[in-house]
Amino acid sequence: MGICQSLLDSEETKEQLKRSREIDKQLEKKKTTMLEQSVLLIGPGESGKSTVMKQIRAMSGNYTKGELDERKVLILRNLHQFSVMLLDYAKRTCLDITEEEIKGYTVMCEEMDNSISNEGVIKPQTVEIMKEFWKTKAIMDAYEKRNIFHLTDSAGYFFENLDRIVMPGFEPTNQDIVHIRIPTSGVSQADVVLKNIKLTICDCGGQRSERRKWYHFFDDNNAVLFVAAISEFDQKLIEDENTNRMEEAIRLFWTVFNGKFFNKSAVILFLNKIDIFREKMKSVKIKDSFPRYDGPNTVQDGVKFFRKQFKDGIHPNFKKRLYCHETCAISDQVQIIINTVIDTVVQENLKDTGMI
Ligand SMILES: Nc1nc2c(ncn2[C@@H]2O[C@H](COP(=O)(O)OP(=O)(O)OP(=O)(O)O)[C@@H](O)[C@H]2O)c(=O)[nH]1
Ligand SMILES: [Mg+2]
Fold it and tell me: What ipTM does the predicted assembly reach?
């Protein structure tokens, strides 16, 4: 004991111990850095960033009762917003709808709003009118033209599932949750643990007015996940009716990845909403929106073309680190792709630290 104490007391030993503790700290720090990864989610508005975030959240564990209750109200709020938008479009475009129907459905929307705000439910008599509303020809026609007035595809899903949603004791499933549409304002950050890695994810609002906030989050990311909706090649922006959504996504991608940021981050591109793209390919011609397209109007050729559009405009350094996936973020299958992406991100960062 005495010898040990005197050894510990010697100046040289003290210095060695100090150094050893510092190295331990460094190693510990390195270990934590390896297991903590930050991912930035960017891309234009409505491309599916928050939906990807919800899938990551679902992979990391179940929702609490309180969280499910909150989401239930969001679904009812979505149903109200979609009803107002459908009715407004039907009214404006003078479709086959009578004054009496307009009055009745306007009252229906007001009652939905009141009962959701006051009791967090929709009254059974209002639900009956909503079912009738959804089957009205003018409303069905309006839904068919949803691309024009920017109604999200989720509207159809929630109306089709109305009976289940309004049942007492309804608990939203993951499918219900990924269909909720709430535009992100600012940046929403979440920490989740997946595959033994602590992921800090920043989900940024994608509309033009939101993008200036992105730059505050551009430093020190292990990965950047850019989400673009491949299905939107024939649609215009909500913010600017003259700009094609896909052209905007491609330009935005080039701007972000030709700047001075992300020199060490893994770059992942999700060409999302591939389910809608597949459907569109049956009736919509890519060439009508992209005159420079001269391939056959097939899913495979279309995907190849858009992949190339994104890739061609970025610096070769980024091309080397670019991983591209076609995704359908509302399908739970996307969780398999997310798993692959996490592996890629970790591997890229291990390469950077010289560990592999
Ligand atoms: N059919 C289909 N719908 C999708 C897909 N991904 C997202 N959606 C729906 O598209 C809508 C928009 O998705 P969000 O995740 O809110 O989009 P965002 O990119 O976060 O939008 P901002 O927050 O405004 O930037 C939601 O209603 C989703 O349910 C997909 O792959 N297929
Ligand atoms: Mg969002």
Answer: 0.99
